[in-house]
Amino acid sequence: MPWKVETFSAADAEIQALPPALRARLLEAVENVGLEALRAPHGRHLEGKLWELRVKAKEGVARGIHLTMAGRRLVVLHVFAKKTRKTPRRALATAMERMRQVTT
Description:
Layout: E1 4-7, H1 9-16, H2 20-33, E2 43-47, E3 50-57, E4 60-69, E5 73-81, H3 89-103
């Protein structure tokens, strides 16, 4: 059974702001490969229920913070271009706030 990828409404604009190659790779990684097969360096656990999806293309590097829900649903909460080695605390705080909105 394939994973159903959903996006938080505010994350749609963030995804559209990415270069085309990064945008395509971000969502197709989960849909084509499956979340179970995504291991380091393509994904890693951040905190609590939040996970990071990593994609790379010629245009740069992007990250998507997501959570999984019942029924093989993956909800992308926040997307950003990563410039540093560590995930910015602001990006994590944004994803946590959006997670609260999705899960309530």
